[in-house]
């Protein structure tokens, strides 16, 4: 495209919430569950925890409280490696401790190299935490899809519905994780006080970023219409920033594409799930003609609101720029992102990096996977080069 776009889409991912110091990462959620386990004033613990393991876990921890202080945040962020070492040392110095109720369970239950200290054996949540070396929401959604395909595919690669009851159990676990995360999010304080000038200036200015050789000035470097496509559940943009449509600013609208806490049970339910329908396995799953198998795919849930069609209407208006702010562009949102990235009206894509070029490069590779192999030339044309002067705003920016 040769014309300068006058529309703009801002993709906001979990990194946007984190840049406001909102503890919404998977690590933060697990830390919340662990701390809650040790809250004596709380009678009802999370249903995600294994009631048979919890007492033993608490007892072992109590043995260490006199020796060393346990930092739960560090414990969780180390994927429980710290606690694994503590447990090994504990058993070597307390050979009779295995007689304590529940301790054999803690000692034997493992998934990979990690001790399963909190959850039921083979629980989806524990698999999601331990399948990779990072606690990230994208890994959780991927773990769900991986387990779903395992239940529906035999060793020869043939798909079947013989284990549909196990699929129902998996989906029930998924629903409980979703409910618990919503409960956690509702404990957070999301108020205008967490707003920052850096974020505010970025959201208000609606800047169009120039290509090499383009000449942009104050008359043509601002979008006329701006859509904030928020993938988070916190509704942070409208809660924190007063996005008034003043005459000298872009006309801004917001779509909370994955739902929002304020309207979860009403007009905009929370969407939790997987969104890659371009994967070969998905077509095989669809051919099973079992509704339970498709229950947590995002496109199924998009149909519950007008949000997706509002997005389609916006991208049909004319040429647009895409800003990627704190969104990892993982495969769990592939169908939606492919629709936007490959659309004829998509003129340019701007990646706002976190800290350095390594994050930019990682996001670029993720964006690349959303372009079909016959559209890779569009990727190279549309994604703007790395610019060290345009990092994602952070809460502590000077």
UniProtKB/TrEMBL annotation:
A Pfam family the protein falls into: AbiH
Name of the featured protein: Bacteriophage abortive infection AbiH
InterPro entries attached to this UniProt entry: AbiH
Organism: Roseivirga seohaensis
């Amino acid at each position: 495209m040769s014309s300068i776009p006058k529309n703009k889409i801002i993709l906001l991912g979990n990194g946007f919430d984190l840049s406001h110091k909102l503890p919404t990462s998977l690590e933060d959620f697990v830390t919340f569950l662990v701390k809650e386990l040790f809250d004596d004033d709380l009678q009802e613990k999370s249903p995600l925890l294994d009631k048979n393991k919890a007492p033993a876990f608490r007892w072992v921890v109590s043995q260490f409280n006199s020796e060393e202080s346990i930092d739960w945040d560090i414990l969780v962020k180390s994927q429980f490696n710290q606690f694994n070492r503590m447990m090994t040392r504990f058993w070597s110095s307390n050979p009779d401790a295995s007689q304590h109720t529940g301790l054999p369970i803690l000692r034997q239950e493992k998934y990979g190299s990690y001790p399963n200290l909190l959850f039921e054996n083979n629980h989806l949540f524990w698999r999601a935490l331990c399948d990779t070396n990072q606690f990230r929401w994208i890994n959780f959604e991927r773990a769900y899809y991986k387990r779903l395909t395992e239940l529906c595919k035999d060793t020869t690669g043939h798909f079947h519905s013989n284990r549909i009851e196990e699929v129902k159990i998996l989906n029930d676990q998924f629903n409980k994780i979703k409910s618990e995360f919503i409960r956690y999010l509702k404990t957070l304080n999301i108020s205008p006080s967490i707003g920052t000038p850096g974020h505010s200036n970025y959201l208000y200015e609606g800047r169009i970023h120039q290509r090499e050789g383009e000449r942009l000035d104050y008359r043509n470097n601002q979008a006329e219409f701006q859509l904030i496509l928020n993938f988070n559940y916190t509704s942070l943009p409208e809660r924190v920033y007063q996005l008034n449509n003043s005459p000298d600013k872009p006309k801004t609208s917001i779509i909370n594409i994955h739902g929002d806490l304020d309207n979860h049970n009403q007009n905009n339910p929370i969407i939790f799930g997987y969104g890659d329908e371009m994967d070969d396995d998905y077509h095989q799953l669809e051919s099973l003609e079992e509704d339970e198998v498709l229950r947590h795919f995002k496109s199924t849930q998009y149909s519950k609101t007008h949000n997706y069609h509002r997005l389609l209407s916006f991208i049909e208006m004319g040429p647009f720029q895409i800003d990627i702010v704190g969104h990892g562009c993982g495969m769990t949102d592939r169908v939606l992102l492919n629709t936007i990235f490959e659309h004829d009206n998509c003129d340019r894509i701007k990646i706002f990096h976190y800290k350095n070029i390594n994050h930019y490069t990682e996001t670029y590779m993720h964006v690349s996977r959303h372009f079909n192999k016959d559209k890779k030339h569009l990727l190279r044309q549309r994604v703007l080069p790395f610019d060290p002067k345009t990092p994602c705003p952070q809460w502590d920016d000077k």
